[in-house]
């Protein structure tokens, strides 16, 4: 299973940091700030342009344009 263990992605922001949010838009509350270069885990779930990821021990949504391998 490709996503069973998750895929490691890196935060690639122009303006540091990237916000981890409760839901898939900027209308949702910020849970954590993720500095550029942070490693996150993506398990394959997304909605629109937002990936549901794990950062440390916290799950939330971040825009896919700012995440890469």
Task: Kindly list the characteristics that best describe this protein.
54% strand; mainly beta; globular; two-stranded antiparallel sheet; 69 residues; five-stranded antiparallel β-sheet
Describe this structure in words.
The chain starts with 6 loop residues before the first strand and ends with a strand. It has strands at residues 7-11, 18-21, 30-34, 39-47, 50-55, 58-63, 67-68. With 69 residues, it is mainly β. A hairpin with a 2-residue loop joins strand 5 and strand 6 (58-63). The strands form two sheets. It has a five-stranded antiparallel β-sheet with strand order 6-5-4-1-7, with no helix packed on it. Strands 2-3 form a two-stranded antiparallel ribbon.
Structure at a glance:
This protein is mainly β.
């Amino acid at each position: 299973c490709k996503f069973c263990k998750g895929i490691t992605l890196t935060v690639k922001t122009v303006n540091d940091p990237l916000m981890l949010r409760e839901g898939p838009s900027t209308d949702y509350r910020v849970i954590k700030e993720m500095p550029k270069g942070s490693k996150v885990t993506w398990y394959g779930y997304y909605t629109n342009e937002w990936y549901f990821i794990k950062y440390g021990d916290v799950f939330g949504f971040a825009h896919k344009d700012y995440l890469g391998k």
